[in-house]
Amino acid sequence: MQILPSGLAIPPLPYTIVLVVLAGAAVASLYLLAPPVTTRQVLAFAPWMVAGGAFHALYQVGLIADPIEPFFGAPAVYVTTFVFAAAVWIPSIIRAQMIDDVRRIARNVGVVGSLLVLALTIVAYFFVAGRLDSTIPLAWLPIGFLGAALLTAPCYYLLTYRWTGTVSHAGWGGPVVVYAHALDGLSTAIGVDVIGTGERTPIPRRIMDFAETLPTYSYFGKGWLFVVIKLVLAMGIVLLLADLVDESPTEGNVLLAFVAAVGMGPAANNLYLFLLGPAV
pLDDT per residue over 140-198, tens digit each? Predict the structure, then answer.
């Protein structure tokens, strides 16, 4: 049974070698530096997760220059984005260790990541300016990001209300994980129910095919069930990892960041494609 999304392809060998060498050097450097990974850093990496999805969307519509294009296909774009983030993360760690100020790490990573997302968003909007017959695609980015926040707030409130002591250990990483998967679920629902796109990943497609057979389909479409499942799973993962964050902060926060990236990257890719697609 197929599990991974369709369209994944390894880049040509020279590009693969470059990515493996750079990623390997970054991982080795991080291992030697052994930096503490805090919940603030999980939050700081959220813009980089968005940037990865945006980079791939620009690649999909042909806006990445030919010489570097293979670095931004899937799954290479995830490694490429990690290398970019590491280029900011590692110097920040070294500087923080020199002056004994670990807060500097999250600040630097978050600021540079946010500026990168801003730049990619400006490129995307500049590309579609004057090419759209309707202004609706321009709204999908704010609708998606704000809509996910509206879904996250009550869900995380209920989570903290019921399991206050446990969830508090997750810090900023907890809401980032729930938000990332709320965004993934919502962007997917917008795609299938409003825009009419298909779903490349087999498991979500099966969930939505099942939702299409329910009496609710004529009222709410088929994406709502996927949104609910994503939120429940994200909340459950936060509960499972919260104690690990308390006992082993670095390992726990790395896992929270990974889980958030699995949702945030594809979600951002969806939203940027909704913006860019009609202008292609």
Answer: 999 999 999 999 999 999 999 988 888 999 999 999 999 999 999 999 999 999 998 87
Q: Is 264 left (phi over 0), alpha (psi -120 to 50) or beta?
A: alpha
Single-letter amino acid code for the residue at 46: A
Sign for the CA dihedral angle at 234, 236, 237, 239 comes to positive
Torsion of CA 150, 156, 158, 163, to 10 degrees: 180
User: What's the pTM value of the predicted model, to 2 decimals?
Assistant: 0.92
